Amino acid sequence: MPRCLLLLLTAFALAACQPETEPASAPAKTEAADYYDNGGRDDVLSGGVRMIPISTPSGEFRVWTKRVGNSPHKKVLLLHGGPGATHEYFEAADSYFPGAGIEYYYYDQLESGRSDHPADSSLWNIPRFVSEVEQVRTALGLDQDNFFLLGHSWGGILAIEYALAHQDHLKGLIVSNMMASVPEYNRYAQEVLGPKMDPAVLKEIQALEAARDFQNPRYAQLVTENYYTEHVLRMPTEAWPDPVNRGMGGINYDIYLAMQGPSEFGIMEGALLEDWDRSRDLEQITVPTLVIGAEHDTMDPEYMKWMADQFPNGHYLYLPDGSHMAMYDDQERYFRGVIDFINSVDNDPE
């Protein structure tokens, strides 16, 4: 028998004696595949968007939410500021949260953005907004095993109020760039930040405010060029990122004026939030809480540090280059601090 044929027959015989192998299995799911697994979700057709019905004393309305990602233990609901701004200025989260495996929800509050606009001032009060957030939480299926609430500016007020009413549903709380006392916020604006402006500019701003000439283009020009670029977002206005321009440009001015006032230069006398102060109640919030303060913010960073100490399980994130929109002008530190906090709470066996 030719040698080559003998070798070939031997190879066939050896192969026949081998145990039957299992068919190749599909590669194991990666973490990224798990994160984008939409199995069992009822929001797939709309790309994560849900219009959630909200019951109010004035009837039922709908608010807009959008889910990004999938995580069983780390879900963040984002509360925008204003009042009356939109979720859009939070979109920088797209650059950070997916890589950290954090599921998160954009959300326009009633009277804002893509949610309904009933234009009903009787609904512009904190208890009604807290009820709204609780209804959103229930609809999204968030609970104490996974629910982190991040509120920025006015959203920080709402987050504190929600925690005081419903902390049993929270896994963690994040209060971003909002003091727990409006009177202290106003004192800081008037006694510390205001005097740093050119005296002539400050005098003209105050004169326009006294005349309630808020729609005067000169008023917007003065506060933007002399206050916002120093304490709201420390970039030239022409360099402000698109999400900021959309989120702030789409503000519902009526609710903003009624609850806050005409600008971020403190909360106006007579505004609905003028007397809000929860500084003595922070000790009642026992869930892990991160307070975010920034050196150039409209909010006093020393107060923010003090505030973190009032929470029994409080933590402080200080942003040396940041202002009120620190998720943009101190972005890396901002999101790294938020992600580290969420992960530390998620990894805590308690």
Automatic annotation (TrEMBL):
Record bears the keyword Hydrolase: yes
Q: Where is the signal peptide?
A: 1-15
Q: Which UniProt keywords apply?
A: Hydrolase, Signal
Domain AB hydrolase-1 stretches: 76-330
Q: Which InterPro entries match?
A: AB_hydrolase_1, AB_hydrolase_fold, AB_hydrolase_sf, Peptidase_S33, Pro_imino_pep
The record's family statement is: Belongs to the peptidase S33 family.
Alphabetical list of PANTHER family matching this protein: HYDROLASE, PUTATIVE (AFU_ORTHOLOGUE AFUA_2G14860)-RELATED (PTHR43798:SF33), MONOACYLGLYCEROL LIPASE (PTHR43798)
- According to UniProt, the name of this protein is Alpha/beta fold hydrolase
